[in-house]
């Protein structure tokens, strides 16, 4: 080995996990490094630390101090890099190659495990390469074991990760071991209010504004995370943006924000900064507010409905059922926490929020016309909107102007079609209101099971386990069944007020509702389409070119809808 006297070295310390923040692991590493430097007469330049950061290719956070250590080697300020062992530098062969190249080019050394390695020596390169490969393999094994453990916990229905809004973690008072999630009553009451508002077809923005006006804290209120720290640092880089951001802050909040930015500039990992602030009970500098997205995420949450999710899917298990086509049915695994949202309400909420028609309308107090946004153009499928003209208000195609009719005549005719439909003696059967909501939930599960089965056949085609002809046969058999299941599942999406309107008194009840409730019912039962007129009637309305668009399943009744 070359002469190693009068070496100037740097120590690099790293620990993958340190949730306590006490840095016990890196402190013990530093003790080892100090002893090694004293024994070998190495001059200590500085120590770099990346605490609570992974060194494997699975890690997502940048190790800023490790990059600074490499810069010291490249510049010649240091001639030796010390780490506790090979894996403290990295568990990634690509990063090992980078370090080896720097050492060869600059003549620097790498020391670990009580020995100094010279990268210009083929024997030392072979030893360090073997150790680096073993370190990466160990990281792969850790990842495999970790994923296996997560899967097993999911199958058992155990809690996971940070508690969802509405829950808090509990711990054993004697051992400190986590015991699971328990419901936070105040947050649970807020969630149930949101669910009821969604079932009443309230606008998500309206729900968010109501909660903000009442001062209801939103999920993870005041908590820091990596994203918030980075956003704060990015805002600081723009003087105008920083001024706008800080002018509404108190002096204490301003100092806190500035301190966080300075820590980022000093090289601390943003994730570790966030964890440190949370441990110390320091709230984020700006209070979080509810918005439509947060409301949607809370009420659609599967864990809050008592379902365990793994890799984005609900974890299910087989339940033997002789009445099922395959002798069993798939049900969500029982979980170790109590649900806040009932399964029936969860099905209703999903059906309401995932209804394609919902994305095209905003009700609230702004609705002025019965059929705008509900009726569609029969030519381009665009929405029909109300417009002023020299001849009065017209209902016409908003996108291309394909069609246009007198609004009063069109709305009167379509409303009469709707009322006649609601007055039918078999209306409850027609709209499946005679079926319980849990039947709709079963239909959703059935549709999901059939789609999964079809996806399995598709994978078999790609893997050449079955022929394309066989897949076409399976697809032809399954698609109609999926369609039927989807039709049965529509029961959950029907507004509750619909059950009060159907029957002989439908006309009086319907006309007594406010316009938002009337539109809610019309959207649930009809999707009219207006085509181009064949003639230009001077008076009256050419109804032959208007498709009422009744939304009911053909197998619910064999009778036709009353004629116009």
TrEMBL record:
CDD domains: Ser_Recombinase. Residues 9-159 form the Resolvase/invertase-type recombinase catalytic domain. InterPro entries: DNA_bind_recomb_sf, DNA_bind_recombinase_dom, Resolv_N, Resolvase-like_N_sf, SSR_resolvase. It comes from Lentzea aerocolonigenes. GO terms for molecular function: DNA binding; DNA strand exchange activity. Coiled coil: none annotated. SMART domains: Resolvase. This is Resolvase/invertase-type recombinase catalytic domain-containing protein. SUPFAM superfamilies: Resolvase-like.
